[in-house]
Design brief:
Chain A is mainly alpha-helical and about 190 residues long. Helices cover about 80% and strands about 0% of the residues of chain A. In chain B, helix 2 packs antiparallel against helix 3. Among the domains of chain B are: about 60 residues; about 30 residues, no CATH class. With about 150 residues, chain B is mainly alpha-helical. The chains are: A mainly alpha (about 190), B mainly alpha (about 150).
Chain lengths: ~190, ~150
């Protein structure tokens, strides 16, 4: 029988260690994204010109990406449901669909950024665009990281291995969705 | 049939409440989509009728509701141990403390004994630029060059 490190099997708080760890990761992420968004909000309120700059972001592209992330979040929770019932193959299928959402999100984002940069709205244009690229870029990095980890977990899930990890990547993915839920109105709607 | 497929087939439908769970997740997803539709259309209607309150409520109020639904029902925070709730609440409180401490210096451009000249100039420059190019992108020339 394969042995596991004690850290993966104990649960001092009665919460499984893996799940506790992912919540601690997310707690640190709340501070990272929270600090960034709080800084953006105070600048947005202190600089009325941000409204004019924001009018150049494309609401429809942002809306499509919101739809894509909400849908991928639904796929992630379906993957968790399948994993909970021990159906690794089905869980992997839903995880692949979630990954497809991540890829779609990134393709749309690339198209959007290409268009904005070619219009002259670069990261050095002004404070609004600096915030825009930093916040959306940091979020996109999380999408890339989450997508890669999800593929690794899906490969294991297919063999009915480490199915508890499906829930953990799901929790992370929902957090990425929640961050976008706030970025969307801040960067695309408040003009 | 492979061992995994057999396992999948034998465990399928084993939980009598499973269908309810799927129904519940689908219901939450549909609710999120409806709220998403409102959060896109609301600000358009709000801007058309000139109601800032409608824009703020439909954009940010609904974002809060959507975030709550995802956290509670997809991340299962509603049934998670309290420890996690306390952990996340602490980080959110730190975020508000940061905002409360820093925002007066950022949102205001002058105080009793201080003045943020760079921020004032940048706002003036942007206003001038907007007056010259109301629909355009402007030149984006830094304030000190004027």
């Amino acid at each position: 029988m394969a042995t596991k490190p004690i850290a993966t099997t104990r649960s001092a708080t009665t919460i499984p260690t893996g799940r506790l760890a992912i919540w601690w990761v997310l707690a640190s992420e709340v501070v990272i994204f929270g600090g960034l968004l709080a800084s953006y909000i105070m600048h947005r309120l202190g600089h009325p010109e941000f409204g004019d700059y924001a009018s150049h972001t494309n609401t429809y592209i942002g809306a499509v990406n919101t739809f894509v992330l909400l849908t991928s979040s639904y796929f992630a929770v379906r993957a968790h449901n399948e994993a909970e019932h021990g159906r690794g193959k089905a869980a992997a299928k839903w995880l692949y669909l979630t990954c497809l959402g991540a890829v779609m999100f990134l393709c749309i984002k690339s198209f959007e950024w290409h268009h904005e940069i070619s219009e002259g709205f670069t990261i050095t244009k002004n404070a609004f665009w600096s915030f825009y690229y930093l916040a959306a870029g940091l979020h996109a990095c999380h999408v890339i990281g989450g997508g890669i980890i999800m593929l690794i977990i899906a490969e294991d899930a297919k063999k009915n291995k480490e199915l508890q990890r499906v829930e953990l990547i799901g929790i992370y993915w929902h957090f990425v969705d929640v961050v976008w839920i706030f970025l969307f109105p801040l960067l695309y709607i408040a003009k | 049939m492979s061992a995994e497929a057999k396992h999948d087939a034998t465990t399928a439908g084993a939980d009598p409440h499973e269908h309810d769970h799927i129904k519940h997740y689908t219901k939450i997803y549909v609710t999120l989509l409806v709220l998403f539709g409102i959060s896109v259309l609301g600000p358009v209607v709000g801007s058309a009728v000139g109601s800032k309150a409608l824009v703020l409520i439909t954009a940010f109020g609904i974002a809060l509701v959507k975030a709550y639904l995802v956290c509670a029902h997809f991340m299962h925070l509603n049934i998670e141990k309290r420890y996690i709730g306390y952990l996340l609440t602490t980080t959110v409180v730190f975020m508000f403390l940061f905002y409360a401490g820093v925002s007066p210096d950022v949102m205001e451009h002058r105080g009793r004994n201080w003045e943020n000249v760079a921020a004032q100039q940048e706002t003036l420059r942007a206003q001038r630029e907007h007056a010259l190019h109301p629909e355009g992108h402007g030149e984006g020339v830094p304030a000190e060059e004027h």
